[in-house]
Amino acid sequence: MVVSNLRVAHYWLDHVYGALMYRLRLSPPFFSNGWGGARLVLLEQLTRQLISQGLANFSVKCWPPPPIDPVWRTVWESKAAKLQEGIFPTPCDPLVRECLPPESHIARVRLLMPRSVPAHKMACVVHLAGTGDHGFERRLRLGGPLLKDNIATLVLESPFYGNRRPRLQRGAKLLCVSDLLVLGRATIEEARTLLYWLDKQAGFSKLGVCGLSMGGVHAAMVGSLHPTPLAVLPLLSPHSAAVAFCEGIMKYGTAWDVLMRDEACSMTLDQVRERMRAVLSLTDVTRFPIPKNPRAVIFVGATNDGYIPGNSMLELQRAWPGSEVRWVTGGHVSSFFLHGKVFRQAIRDGVARLS
After folding, report:
1. 15 vs 344, more confident
2. Alpha-carbon distance 174 to 304, whole Å?
3. Which domains does the chain have, with CATH numbers?
4. Which of 103, 143, 182, 346 could be joined to 298 by an S-S link, Cβ 3.0–4.6 Å?
5. pLDDT (tens digit per residue) in 283-294
């Protein structure tokens, strides 16, 4: 009875948080400027073209990625560890770069690593941002305790977030649906480039990619497209952005009324939601190739997640035989704060499963 009540409490915490954030309009909704016009059409075409040509072919043809040469500065250092910040121009495809706001053209990362261990004796995991994760601190707190396991943490600041946030955007509330697609495409291309840099330039022995919520969707895509085995850790993640915006609590934070008016011909709410589902189905990770070492793929889901239904994560596991799903008791919000130890153990285990 106590466990059952606790699960209900976790589930309702997600809904209370969602009500405060979305239903009471304490913050602006997602997509308050509509679909994105010509940018959305372009991004849909680019994505459908990749899918029709075969994502496996894309991962081969577009490797190696464009080189980067980050400019580094030391944020702090101690006897045991060192934190550096690097900046570099986004290496995205020129058509994708044109869809990014000017503020997002320069990528920022922070790299936390032990000082006394050479890179070739360490692993490094790239951490990608979830919705609303501005800056670096949350993910550095997740990765920091892994230093004692000789696992470094590289945190990428997402386009549209932190210092890369457009001037007119409030918080994490993307202004257009097209922004969500270009954020994902740019994040994937930047992460692929960073993994190549960590391998060939920095010389780390093992690599991984990790992300919470939306960042987990991107991590799964990056891991799928990487030409060599990676540890892939999608945490509290759906198999598609359509699940989050059309089924979970975030549907209450979407400007459906604006999207209805933004179409050339008037549409009903149901029609607009179907249109949204069709656009976001382009982010369905079950369409992506199985990663090179599926045993090093570990999903972590929450038993009472109000944002991400549990069956969504199971769809990904079915699409990627050999991967593992682990569960924590909690909701989306509570698990984020309470289960860091479980997330870190998944990272350790994923890295350990790399040959």
Report:
1. 344
2. 26
3. 1-353 (3.40.50.1820)
4. 346
5. 999 999 999 999
